[in-house]
Amino acid sequence: MSERIGAVPATYMGEGSGPRAWLLTTDHKRVAWLYLVALTVFFFLGGAMAVLIRVELATPAGDLVSDDAYDRLFSIHGIIMVWFFLVPSIPATLGNFLLPLMIGARDLAFPRLNLASWYVFIFGSGFTLYSVIAGGVDTGWTFYTPFSTMFSNSYVSAAAFGVFIVGFSTIMTGINFIVTVHKLRAPGLTWFRLPIFVWTMYATALVMVLATPVLAASLILIVLERVFGIGVFDPGLGGDPLLFQHLFWFYSHPAVYIMILPGMGVVSEILPCFSRRPLFGYTAVALSSMAIAIFGFLVWGHHMFVSGQSAYAGLVFSFLSYCVAIPSAIKVFNWSLTLRKGEITFETSMLYALGFLGLFTFGGLAGLFLAALAVDVHVHDTYFVVAHFHYIMVGGMVTAFMAGIHFWWPKITGRMYSETWGRIAAIVTFLGFNLTFFPQYVLGFLGMPRRYHAYPPEFAFWHILSSAGAVVLALGYLMPLFYLGWSLFRGPRAPDNPWRATGLEWKTTSPPPPHNFDETPVVDGPPYRYPLAEDGA
Amino acid sequence: MSGAVESEAFRDAERERQADAFGRWIFIGSEAMLFGAVMLVYLTARMAHPEGFGEASSRLSLLLGTVNTAVLITSSLAMALADLLVKLGRRRAAAWALAATALLGLAFLAVKGVEYADEVREGLAPVLGLPFAFEGADPRGAQLFFELYFASTGLHAAHLIGGLAAIATVLATWRRSTDAACLRRTRAVGLYWHFVDIVWVFLFPLLYLVHR
Amino acid sequence: MNEVRRLAAAYVGLLALLALTVASAFVDLGGFNSAANLAIAAAKAALIAVLFMQLPRQGVLPRLVVVAVALWLAILFALTLAG
Fold first, then answer.
1. Which of C28, C65, C76 is the closest to B29 by Cβ?
2. Do A297 and C72 count as a contact with CB atoms less than 8 A apart?
3. Cα distance between residue A421 and residue A411, in whole Å
4. Which of A213, A359, A384, A442 is 20 to 30 A from B65 (CA-CA)?
5. ipTM of this predicted complex?
6. Tens of pLDDT along A303-316?
7. CB atoms < 10 A from the CB of A471, how many?
8. Handedness of CA B70, B73, B79, B82 (dihedral sign)
9. Span A172-188, pLDDT tens digits
10. A touches which chains (3+ CB pairs under 8 A)?
11. Contact residues, chain A, for B158 at CB < 8 Å
């Protein structure tokens, strides 16, 4: 660990300090930091809303907040968490930081566009935050019409407009990633030598660029209806509210893959490293990312089984929804086979990655129930659905985000963190998560509908369990804030490759120099060549 | 380091040029998805109200719509000429062609404004709470038609204004820029301008030529 | 000059198609008017893409973008209108 303590090489972190050097930077690594700070703020803001929701639900009576305030709480929780945390989370932070490093590039293809995307993100989220402060939004994160356009008297336009603006920043990031992967790979780095993380970033970017504009169109029409009185979704004027749902889910189901694919990429890097085994079935895993991106576009109708679409359309969407499970299953099997006979060690990021594997599989299987037309009609709009998407989004995505942050933290900051505290936090998070959301599956089957702030006393037992779990979960998420924060300033210096991992990002210094590599690296073989020669295996 | 690169990321100017072009095409593709979604909304509504849409469409001015289409096509020609001229190194002539493009764009907006004013006067603009009155078999369908007409042409006009702003920016820095920079910017703004033209090429028959 | 002639041909072609599409509106094609109009619009778009935007000279990646967008729009339209 003391190999380069003497002459400290130039790092991107040392290149100029003060707000100007950070706020006007075009270095992808610094832009990643800008995003990380903004997203952390949003994560804890949305988390605070979630805690308030669970506190309200700890007792059957609606005693803490009024029903109206409760609607606003869960709407803002959803809007912040989905649009301002989950969608940009891994791509904008880890993706921004790692994509050029992993392909041996000096920066993203359009560095200024990258910085611009952050400002657009901040501007859009500012709009939405304004709507929260001015009075809140009570439409849920989906802005379903006609409620959002005709009946809601909350600040829908400002919130929808904010999400619309943030969509631009998503598209900018998407364009940047696609062009970077096509045009800036290091010599010798062919497509089938790319790390899976890069494949998933590429697939994610594809979905971002093709689906976000459709969402933008529907949000524009909502704003036009509310501001200019152009009632396209208004059934009173011959408009068609169902049309909004089509457009909305054409974006939003693929958006689920915008959120989950990067997590899959992170896990695909970590599992081979800590089991010292090459990733099993590399080609299948790489191509299944693309398959998910494409199939993801075909299944949006399964959100609308009960909204009066034709039985024929329901059948088609149900079938297609089963199909999209196949590439996900391919990934899960290949990850499991990677672990087989591996020399597994349980570093913090590995614990998170294994947590992802378990929770994602469990949540995904529950998704199959929902894809079945008959079952879906039974549990539609119950806590079963809430539990399902929290298993995928929080259990899967946020866990993968934490795994990635811990895995690449030494590279990003050049500092190590406390492995003990990290492991404790990972385990606390896992337990807290299950305690929070498993009871919600049960509640859903018992028939507890979502989005109510009061409930009959017979549901109380499961709700209290869930609320207790939320406290544990909150603790699990707060801990990294402290030990990682400490590590940033006081942690021991990290070596260039603390985990003995493969991948170009580990070939440069920790933290990397301003232009990533002193010499453009040349790649001469496939990724994940574990075990390394120095492992002595 | 061959040639001059703009961004830190590239070592090779030709590669950067390809990357720029690719990025712009992706942007255009994502704009196409936006307008595609709007046209889909329109088509669904039209299938639900064939009669109302037919009646309402015949109230638009086919003459002004046709003139405007021709104006926009001509502006695209001027833009293509600008691209050609700057490639041949005739920067002054290219700047004039760009200016002509912008003037034709302004003419389009002016005609569109006249049309909007006519529609407001005839009570055909269900916008901002203005009075809307339509005599016919399906007034609701007609109202929906006009809502979508204003939404889609408004969105198109907003894009056109964006294009005008882009041309103005290019022209403002024209004298101070290198040949390579002029070519790159003309390409960029040209691609966008032609795309906005294509959008209108689809909007025109959809809105003005519903069978009467 | 070859290039200028190319652009002029595109321009004349576009105006001719415009005239055709307007004229078709005054003829009853028995329900095929809209289809004809959209086909003409597609032809105009192709002219602009090929001769003004110079799509064929752009290499494989921009063409890939066009194909991908066309495919995704087809998916969106087909599945929505089927429902």
1. C65
2. yes
3. 19
4. A213
5. 0.92
6. 554 455 566 666 77
7. 16
8. negative
9. 999 999 999 999 999 99
10. B, C
11. none
